[in-house]
Each structure stands twice: as structure tokens, then as C-alpha cells.
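Lab notebook, design round three. We kept the backbone fixed and only want residue identities now. Task for the bench partner: fill in a sequence for the structure below.
Input C-alpha cells:
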């Protein structure tokens, strides 16, 4: 199963915007979002370091429905 597109941010132009997908085989929810500003990143780092292989992205509240759909799609996968 390839990456399943769930939704793009409904309040953007549809080009360069937050997006959510589900990858059933890898059992992952994948997000595209905005980079945090320096202050937000510093706040995130208070809980521990962020490895070079990971990143922090910002997703707007208006995408909560899309995130729920991604969670539902992830739960439906038969891969355990």
C-alpha cells in the first residue's frame, strides 16, 4: 500500500500547504507543515533534543478533522 493522501489545509491555495497522509505498510501518519520559529523551537527543545533524523512541524487547528481521518485510516489498516 502506497502513501494514502488524506487532506490539505482547507484554508490555503492548495499548493504549498500543510498536508496529511497515511502509510499503512510503514504504520505511520505523515505530516507536511510549517517550520516552527526560533522561539517555538526553543520551547520544544525544553523537553529534550531533536535528532537530526527528526523534525518539528506546525499544523493548524483547522486540520483537526483531517488528522482524525488519518487516525481512522491508520486504525483500519490490517498491518500490525
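Proposed sequence:
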Amino acid at each position: 500500500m502506497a502513501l494514502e493522501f488524506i487532506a490539505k489545509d482547507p484554508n490555503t491555495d492548495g499548493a504549498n500547504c500543510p498536508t496529511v497522509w497515511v502509510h499503512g505498510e510503514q504504520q505511520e501518519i505523515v505530516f507536511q507543515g510549517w517550520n516552527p520559529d526560533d522561539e517555538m523551537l526553543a520551547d520544544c527543545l525544553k523537553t529534550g533534543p531533536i535528532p537530526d533524523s527528526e523534525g518539528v512541524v506546525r499544523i493548524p487547528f483547522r486540520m483537526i478533522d483531517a488528522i482524525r481521518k488519518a487516525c481512522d485510516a491508520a486504525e483500519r489498516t490490517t498491518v500490525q
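Keep this in mind before ordering anything: The mean pLDDT is 91.
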